[in-house]
Amino acid sequence: MAHGETVRSSDNGPSAATATESRFETDVPARLDRLPWSRFHWRVVLALGVAWVLNGLEVTLVGSLASAIQDPRSLDLSNTQMGWIGSAYVACAGLGALGFGWLADHVGRQRLFFVTLLVYMAGTIATGFAWDFWSLALFRAMIGAGIGGEYAAVNSAIQELVPAQLRGRTDLYVNGTFWGGAAMGAVISLLVLNPETSLQEGWRVAFVAGGLLCLVVLCLRRYLPESPRWLMLRGRPEEAERIVSAIERDIIRVRGPLPTPSSNKLLLYRRGGASLREVWDTMRGTHRDRAKLGFVLMSCQAFFYNAFFFTYAMVLTKFYGVQAHSVGWYMLAFALGNLSGPFFLGRFFDTVGRKPMIVMTYGLTGLLTIWTSIAFAYEWFSVLEQTAAWAVIFFFASAAASAAYLTVGESFPLEMRATAIALFYAIGMALGAGGPALYGWLIGGESRSGIMLGYLAAGGLMLVAAATEWLLGFDAEGRPLEEVAKPLAAVVQGFDPVPAMPNGGALPRTAVARQGQWPGSVTQVDGPRRPASPSWQNIGRGETSASIPKGPTLDELNNKPDDLLRRNDLRVDRPNVEPSFAELDQRIDAMLLSSSETEVRVAVLLGDPLPPIADPPGKPGLAELDRQLDAILRRSSETEARVAALVQRLG
């Protein structure tokens, strides 16, 4: 059974026979990962990456044309209002990511490619017709929702379609193309902000033209297939096979015979997409350290980028006296620094490794930002020197930010990949939404020292992210996605997703089972490891991994369940008051039932006779409660040893 899948009762769940029939074996991931780079992969990168170019174009136009939009002859907006408009974009980008990301996991990547792009296109064109602060904020919010959905659907699809040995650099390259669009936006702003051009009309034409370019991207995406990995995990292996076979035939016609795929096949069972409960349980259970890592990487880079990027033009015009029609030149240098980072550093994420490169890029970004913020406050730099310093900083920051999306996408099972990317993107956007408004307020205060404090905070957050990666980062370079994060639909060989019980029913749901631990999941999980289990041979001599006190008090009995939960890496939510005797009795009965269910699952895995489910006595005394707890602790130690033997057998 896949970790995270609830074991259902016989009244509303499949039988063991049905679960067995729903299994299927597939080598789709191995076949995709062994493919050489081909025209198919170029089509994927172009069709999905071009949207990033347009996004960069549109976002840069907002920054470069800020002065034109604020001009009294145009919308006559203040710095603070521009900051709030940026925050509206960021907040709705998070909301759009959540909605469209969930849909991408449940209805498919391909459909979302069109929906998200249409939302983005509508908002961009409408921006050209904005008439006041509120209309501009609304249209920018629409753009944000579309872009948020793009991040979730596109990043998940790219990772699933690109070979494992090239996944890191390709993901960084595609995300980096955003800055190619930013460079284009800077050049366009130089044209539309020409002093001889009407400020009222120039910026409007730029947004309408940028939105219409999305029609080209829509045409390109018509030729992209659905992700075979998504089809495979939705229980549609035949469709996945047809798509992969078509890709292979096209490559063979050009490149000749293909390498033999790995002999490792996945045994899966048919299931739907991951529920929100499964997503939550996976993130707080099996992959909780990866969830912490994704949260820190995404939120820190989001605040850093949003704070700098949405106020860049305002800093140039207010503190360096740059004219509105000249901002594009400085934005061009800024964009080129961002563009070059992923393209120069991307390949090292596949060769040197994810962890050292992420630590380096985040760390250097933080250190350089702190130094530059001090130089800004004390006016050590001219406008050209300041621009050069920022270009160097964002050379590393751009690669770091792209790696955050790569990390989140690789951290979790395929059934919830787009949802996970969307969730962490939304969290990052929510925490980063205050950046533009904060910096807009600081800029409005006309104090360099205040802005320096904001820059110092952003640099400090990047250092925190670097330290977190150092502590919690993992190696994913060159590894199949299914190896980095085991699919929820994966079946352990010889184990039915819903094992049969002696009475013909199914196991009741375990109250305290850790997500991903039972049943059937014997993969290594994140977090602190358990103490070594006793050897199988010593079980009979009474050697256990838990000491059993003699002559217990009621308080000592109450502590025993907590000790057992801690041994199983489970959180202990214990009230501060001591329980009554009846409450303690109920608690122990629930644990005894859970322990019996776990023994049954292990027996199914090992092919042993099924033990009966324990039937706790009705009203035991204090001594009987102590005996029950001792039995639970001993049986838990025995189960640990049997699981260790099972892991060794599976090799």
TrEMBL record:
Keyword Membrane appears in the UniProt entry: yes
GO annotation, cellular component aspect: plasma membrane
Annotated region (Disordered), positions in chain: 1-22, 519-551
InterPro entries tied to this protein: MFS_dom (IPR020846), MFS_sugar_transport-like (IPR005828), MFS_trans_sf (IPR036259)
Subcellular location: Membrane
Domain of life of the organism encoding this protein: Bacteria
Major facilitator superfamily (MFS) profile domain mapped to chain residues: 44-477
Biased composition (Polar residues): 9-21
Topology term for the membrane: Multi-pass membrane protein
CDD domains given in the database record: MFS_SV2_like
Record keywords, A-Z: Membrane, Transmembrane, Transmembrane helix
Any one GO MF annotation of this record: carboxylic acid transmembrane transporter activity
Keyword Transmembrane: yes
Entry's transmembrane regions: 44-69, 81-100, 112-131, 137-158, 170-193, 205-224, 293-315, 327-345, 357-381, 387-408, 420-439
PANTHER family xref list: CARBOXYLIC ACID TRANSPORTER PROTEIN HOMOLOG
Name of this protein: MFS transporter
